Amino acid sequence: MTKKNKTIRLCLIFLIPLLILSILVAVGALKRNSDIINQSQNETAWYVMQLTKEFAEFNYQLKSYQAGSSDHNDVMLQYEILWSRFKTILNNSMIVHLNHHSGVIQEISIQFENLKGMESQLMQRPNGKQITPLLSFSRNNYDELTLFLHHKFRLTNSDLAAAIKATTTMKYLINYMLIIALLLGATLFITLLRESRNLHRLAMYDGLTQIHNRFWLNQKLDELAKANHAFRFYLIDLDEFKNINDTLGHQAGDDLLITIAKRLKKLIPQGCEVARLGGDEFAVIEKLPAEVRQPIDQQILSLLAEPAIYADQPRQISASIGCSEYPKDAKTISTLLQLADFAMYEVKQQGKNGLKIYTPTAPSYRIAEE
Asked: What is the β-pairing status of strands 308-310 and 313-315?
């Protein structure tokens, strides 16, 4: 072995571990920056949206009370809801990423104090004339808060700007190192292949319920349509789901969604596919064989008829379900989804908690009758 070759071999032995270590460090830094950006934008935006929503509803109740279309109890109820929303944001230690937006906590604290200052006057049951200055004061506070938050969340602070810039730079750096690493060894190639599969799963599956998501569903429907494969599409919408979240908490809502997903997965061995569209909506695809067979609507009803345990006790499930068939009812996927949506809303109009197959003479089935 020549001295030159020996030098190259030693360099490679040194560079390969160093390169792999550098990639791991860069990926870790990228993940930390991504976490800061995602959590700061998504988590804080959700809490801020809920706060401004409840604030707007409070002003609406004051206006309705002034006009005589709402009573004092409605105003005080919305006041308590808004008061609780302020308290949650200011006292919840988990909402740490609000601190990445300079001045937000201080502004929210000021508006909370302004709100509490109205309580004594509200408790005195003011008449329509007396409520006018309170309504004006509340509207001014709302406008001031929304303008401030709008500015803050459109123009992020220097910490977030620096994190975004660092993330972009790190992405380019990682790309270069990956190209070099692919030339230096097959081990890194295997690692990247496994990572690719994990990312693909994240893109195709719902993180909460671990079933397919809307992105996967759209691809699957297009695939079946291109193959001219007959199938039935069931659109499932949980009734009063927002009320569950509002009264029992989001954890109870999540538990219910997970339970529904587990039950629907029991249909997979029968040639069905299930997916979560988002929120409280699920979908089931029943692929039809060459021979005609009975639809699985009764099985879906039976799965949903059983009580689910959430908020620490068993509770009945209520769902409105619409079904349409391709290509019998529709020649395009968009029309198919629309027909299933029509059928589902017909169930809701008839009292909810049932299933409707989109045919002119088909009956609506009730879960409660199972």
From this structure: antiparallel
Spatial contact of 326 and 224, defined as CB atoms under 8 Å apart: yes
Burial of 312 (0-12, 13-18, 19+ CB in 10 A): exposed
In three-state secondary structure terms, 168 is helix
Decide: 340 and 328 in contact? Cβ < 8 Å: no
Peptide bond into 17 cis (omega under 30): no
- pLDDT at res. 335: 92
The tens digit of pLDDT for each residue in 245-276 reads: 889 999 999 999 999 999 999 888 777 899 99
d(CA 205, CA 23): 27
pTM equals: 0.48
DSSP classification of residue 278: E
CB-CB contact of 35 with 166 (8 Å): no
Contact 249, 304 (CB under 8 A): no
Contact, 111 vs 141, CB < 8 A?
yes
Here the tokens at position 187 are: 């081990």
pLDDT band at 37 (very low <50, low <70, confident <90, very high): low
Closest CA to 141 of 76, 82, 73, 64: 82
Mean of the pLDDT values across residues 135-161? 74
- Under a CB-based contact definition with an 8 Å cutoff, are residues 267 and 274 in contact? yes
DSSP 153-187: HHS--HHHHHHHHHHHHHHHHHHHHHHHHHHH-HH
Distance CA 101, CA 140 (A): 22
